[in-house]
Design brief:
Length: about 140
């Protein structure tokens, strides 16, 4: 858990894109601290002329290739994990399958979800950042 200032918090939550980008940065730093190697951020097969969905982070966790969806929330109103429904999972799988095809070899892989929660403590001048990492989420 890390802390950010209330003024920075307000700036971050004013836009879903800014909130999402901030969450992806936090997730990448978290993964590195956990010993993972971040290979790519915002991988999109369309950038390479192929079909498929965007993968927020592609990382290596020991010998496993990990395709990670990052969801960031400014409250605990609804669990971020629940936003990764079957349609979103299918979209992420398409992007991952393009990556795996390009490797031209079979490698162990999995699909994870990282949830980032930014919460302001009542009566406190700081905002807490909490990370929840679910391995093999789908």
């Amino acid at each position: 858990m890390s802390k950010i200032s209330p003024s920075r918090y307000i700036k971050i939550i004013q836009s879903n894109k800014i909130l999402g980008d901030y969450g992806e940065k936090i997730a990448a730093k978290y993964l590195k601290k956990q010993g993972c190697k971040v290979l790519y951020k915002k991988f999109n097969p369309r950038d390479f002329g192929a079909k498929g969905g965007e993968v927020d982070i592609v990382a290596r966790d020991e010998n496993t290739l990990v395709f990670i969806e990052v969801k960031t929330r400014s409250s605990y109103y609804k669990r971020a994990y629940d936003a990764v429904d079957k349609t979103k999972q299918s979209y992420i799988r398409k992007g991952a399958h393009y990556w795996l095809r390009e490797l031209k070899q079979t490698v162990p892989h999995r699909f994870d979800i990282i949830e980032i929660y930014l919460t302001q403590q009542i009566g406190d001048d700081t905002v807490n950042t909490e990370v929840v990492w679910t391995k093999n989420a789908f």
